[in-house]
Amino acid sequence: AVAEATGKNFQTLLTEARIKTASAILRGTDLPIAEVARRCGIPHVAQFPRTFRPALGQPPAEHRQTSV
Question: Is-contact 2 10, C-beta < 8 A?
């Protein structure tokens, strides 16, 4: 049902929501990257940049610096 309505599977939608939330947290706080990942539901910190970079074109730390 989700895939039919959006053209995306549930995992893709979940990842997009997590990246959107992470972007907002990075722009609005000075929390450590590991804490941002945890708050977005990404349990393995090493996985966070590998998920974040393809979605927004830059790693989390750089996104924080350029979004201020």
Answer: yes
- Mean of per-residue pLDDT scores for the chain: 92
CA distance 60 to 29: 12
SS3 label, residue 57: coil
Q: Within 13 Å, how many C-alpha atoms sit on residue 13's CB side?
A: 10
Report the candidate in 44, 8, 2, 56 with the shortest Cα–Cα distance to residue 22. 56
Q: What is the distance between the terminal CA atoms of the chain, rounded to a whole angstrom?
A: 38
pTM here is: 0.86
